[in-house]
Amino acid sequence: MTTNATPTVLFAGNPNAGKTTLFNLLTGARAKVGNYPGVTVDRREAKLKLDDGSHSTVVDLPGAYSLTARSAEERVAIEALLAAGSATPAAVVVVLDATTLGRGLYFATQVLEVGLPTVIALTMIDEAKKLGMVIDHAKLAASLGCAVVPVVATRGDGKDELVRAIRDAVTSVPARSPLRRFDAELEADITVVEDALVAATMGSRSDEAAKRRLRVLAQWALLSIGDDELTGVAAGVREAVERVRSDAKRANRDVDRELVTARYKRVDPLLRDVLGEKAGPVKRLSSRIDDVLVHPVWGLLVFVGVMFVVFQALFAWAEPLMGLIESGVDALSAFAKAELPEGAFTDLLVNGIIAGVGNVVVFVPQIAILFVFITLLEDSGYLARVAFVIDRIMAKVGLNGKAFVPMLSGFACAIPAVMATRTIESRRDRLLTMLVVPLMSCSARLPIYVLMTSVVFDPSDKVFGFLSTGALVLFAMYVTSVVAALGVAFVLGRTALKGPRPTLVIELPPYRMPRAINIGRATTSRVRRFLADAGTVILALTILLWALLNYPKDSVSEARFEQMRAVATADADEEARQAALAEIDAEQAGERLRNSAAGRAGRLFEPALEPLGFDWKIGVGLIGAFAAREVFVSTLGLVYDVSDATEEDQGLHAKLRAAKHRDGSRVFTPLTGVALMVFFVLACQCMSTLAVVRRESGSWKWPAFMFGYMTSLAYLVTLVVYQVGRAFGWGV
Amino acid sequence: MQSTLSDLSIGERGVIEVVTAARPLAVRLMELGLVEGTEVRIKRRAPLGDPLELELRGYSLSIRADEARCVRVRREP
Ligand SMILES: Nc1nc2c(ncn2[C@@H]2O[C@H](COP(=O)(O)OP(=O)(O)O)[C@@H](O)[C@H]2O)c(=O)[nH]1
Ligand SMILES: [Mg+2]
Fold it and tell me: Alpha carbon of A645 to those of A453, A624, A651, A661: distances in Å?
């Protein structure tokens, strides 16, 4: 162990044991959140000041029920625990929920075998008392050979004692907790795997500490290797594990079962020993709450109600804030336009950079609200019930209940939704969810629906005499997106992502009062992550798009506009002069666009877009939409020579309504409008989503696949909608 | 007759005999405490009929009926 570097203290424990709460209690607000290298598992670390004035770095490991790890994500915990050399942790704090001590001790005894100085923090002591449990923590400490500190993480009880115990663990070198052996057959199996690990240089027997690590690693290998998603496991180790397992099977033994059972056989007597006489079974408050919250009738009503509130919040509550940000951005660009000299730089600043930042920041309110709700649901314990209630339906399309919240989040924005898939353990299920989440109709699509419905439908259009056609079509788009997401999941789960039938194994933790501080921290760290992820991509693309829309410039036409301007400026009448100049500006913008790279591309794609009912101008808009969907509206404004277009803009509406195909027919018929909306529902037009999927899936393969299937699906479905509609003469 | 967790009715108790599930699932269930000799009670079914909520070792666990069929139990009176 190096003495000059700050010692590292790991926090490990079962999910919901109170790890995060304890981490926040000890370290205050200075946590750094990042990812473990190579995998997308949150890595939270912070400085902890010990009572002797020294500092250590506390790292919050992902919650786990055991050290078994079948994927790179799960392997993070065991790798941190077994790190050798200068990365060796100085101590481990195992956070145990006093009310589920048996299951917690299974994990704790695994960690103790590593041989690091260990402190057990026994949380939820308040709840244990209410349940009539008396825990003899001194006896527990004596049996395990490590310090045991009872705490109430939410109230801060036991904080000082815990800090003192951590200091003792870090500074002194306590005796290693005794190592207990299994029966001879199992020990022989472990030795075979240990030998293979040594041969593959994944471990060594150089000293006592290394031997301890090797033994833990061998048990990990026996329980994890085979049917795994691990990389970098030496072939020799795999073979050894397979051999041990098949030899055991021939002798009618099951190594997995023996290993797990042997450990529980140690834990159970210990548990009886430290638990005082239990006052008869108490029905937890939580269980009584569940009698209502997951009741066959009330439970469903509550579920629908909760989801409605989340949905409502995402739209109604975020709306005013988003409006505020939009007007702020508009004011800023107006200010910049007024104050700075005209020219390419100002244009880049206003239409590239300010607009780009605006496109990102405008989502912050929704994302913050979304994460406040997700953390609220998670910390209260209801999130697990969401999965419990909805699993039956998700199972029908080959997903599991945990995919529901990411999909719901997709209504706000696919980026946090893709991030929310991290709660799904199986890689295949997570990928499947990730691939369909971008089909959910995110809020960036809404401005396009609003524009199209108001252009192609008359507000007085009614279906059945009372339903507004526009509203109905809008609703239909949301339904289409959900049906598409579920349908694609169903198909992909049976084709590209064929795998073992997904399972659902989920703990239903007791209901607990969520705490503002946990929610605040989780939300800010997620918003920061969004800004970093989406911010850079959207900003860069908006600038790129600006360049594509403005360059190359045609010098002949530029000169012509200068001339027209000179003529107009000569007009004596102030009002007429302003009007003429504005007209010239708009016309010039349109002309520039037609000559620009994007304009040319739009015309190039026109033959492919024609069967969908789109013309080249819509094509240019679609190119713009790849930076961020809302950009479609302002790009259409550019193509149709309307300055500063918004979705309520009357000028843009009039221009769109008047737009004609070459044969003189209207471009924006109700059918084209609907076709365009359907295209937006299904097409993958968000580079930030692709970038996030690439990070979360670890390769470009999946975002490429996603882009391919979504774009093809969008094209085909739009084609069918338009052609069938035209054949039947609907909305033409 | 051999019963599995999915044969128990709501409120009924059983003692685990063996987890017969395929590998990754079996290890997970066992590590969550479903080992031989552990007492389990079926607490309820989800509103739509599946999954189940089990109570064991002082906590609640939810698994699907399909998975419950892979856990052999001895009925407790
Ligand atoms: N009553 C009580 N609740 C706690 C205690 N520690 C944490 N909690 C609550 O338990 C829930 C889960 O805690 P959290 O820190 O998120 O657990 P983690 O999953 O291990 O990070 C939260 O609602 C906490 O407020 C405690 O000591 N007593
Ligand atoms: Mg946590």
Answer: 16, 14, 8, 22
At A415, list the tokens: 């980026």
Residue among B31, B48, B59 minimizing CB distance to A106 = B31
Structural domains of chain A, with CATH: 8-171 (3.40.50.300), 184-276 (1.10.287)
Q: Which residue do the tokens 């005499």 mark?
A: A465
The helix or strand, by DSSP H or E, that contains position A513, with its residue range, turns out to be none
Cα A198 from Cα A214, distance rounded (Å) = 8
Question: Is the pTM above the cut of 0.90?
Answer: no
**Taking CB atoms and an 8 Å limit, are A508 and B24 in contact across chains?**
no
pLDDT at position A180, please?
Answer: 83
CB contact (8 A) between residue A226 and residue B23 = yes
Pocket flag, ligand 1, residue A20 (CB < 6 Å):
yes
Q: Does domain B3-76 match CATH 2.30.30.90? A: yes
Residue A175 CB: number of other CB atoms within 10 A? 9
| Ligand showing the shortest atom-to-Cα distance for residue A33 | 2
The type of residue at A270 is L
Q: Is B73 on the interface with A (CB under 8 A)?
A: no
For residues A15 and A65, is the Cβ–Cβ distance under 8 A? yes
DSSP structural state of residue A352: I
Per the structure block, which two tokens stand in for A465? 């005499």
Q: Which atom of ligand 1 is nearest to the CA of A512?
A: 23
Contact B33 A66 (CB under 8 A): no
Q: Tell how strand B71-75 and strand B13-19 pair up.
A: antiparallel
The identity of residue A228, as a single letter, is D
pLDDT confidence of residue A1: 43
B residues 20-49 closer than 8 Å to A (CB): 22-33, 35-36, 38, 43-44, 46-49
pLDDT at residue A2 in the model? 43
User: How many angstroms away from the CA of B41 is the closest CA of chain A?
Assistant: 13
The pLDDT value given to residue B1: 64
CA distance linking residue A678 with residue A479, whole number of Å: 11
Q: In chain A, which residues have pLDDT < 50? A: 1-2, 279-280
Pocket test for ligand 1, best of A154, A285, A374 (most atoms within 8 A of CB): A154
Give me the residue spans of the domains in chain B: 3-76
Size of interface A-B (CB pairs under 8 A): 122
**Both structure tokens of A549:** 């829309």
pLDDT digits (tens, 9 = 90+) for A91-123: 999 999 999 999 999 999 999 999 999 999 999
**A441 in contact with ligand 1, CB cutoff 6 A:** no
Q: Which ligand is nearest to the CA of A104?
A: 1
Q: For A422-438, how does the pLDDT look when each residue is reduced to its tens digit (9 = 90+)? A: 888 788 899 999 999 99
